[in-house]
Design brief:
Layout lengths: L2 E5 L2 E3 L5 E8 L8 E6 L6 E6 L5 E3 L7 E6 L4 E6 L8 E9 L2 E4 L3 E5 L2
Parallel strand pairs: 2-11
Antiparallel strand pairs: 1-3, 3-8, 4-5, 4-9, 5-6, 7-8, 9-10, 9-11
């Protein structure tokens, strides 16, 4: 059974930083692309960043230069370091993996950027 558990969200002031973590179980973590998505109130869920099995990252234009995705295959964990946060980054952030055409999501972690 695939499980993804996010942590690290919270309230931060504009310009601040947060680090999200996603611990995965039930999969051979090292062979899968992992992703972070977010959904703001009233908006569709959107891709923020993905990282391939070899560590190649991809970012949405809106977060390039501010966010960094990384993975630790020994810990079955993917991270999202978020710097220079803006109010428009406020959303619920979800971890994602696709295994055999099945999408799996974590429960989400709230990130609120506000003064």
């Amino acid at each position: 059974q695939v499980q993804l558990v996010e942590s690290g969200g919270g309230l931060v002031q504009p310009g601040g930083s947060l680090r999200l973590s996603c611990a995965a179980s039930g999969i051979i973590f090292s062979i899968y692309t992992m992703g972070w998505y977010r959904q703001a109130p009233g908006k569709q869920r959107e891709s923020v960043a993905t990282i391939g099995s070899r560590g190649t990252p991809n970012y949405a234009d809106s977060v390039k230069g501010r966010f960094t995705i990384s993975r630790d295959n020994a810990k079955n964990t993917v991270y999202l370091q978020m710097n220079s946060l803006k109010p428009e980054d406020t959303a619920v952030y979800y971890c994602h993996v696709q295994q055999r055409s099945q999408n799996y999501w974590g429960q989400g972690t709230q990130v609120t950027v506000s003064s």
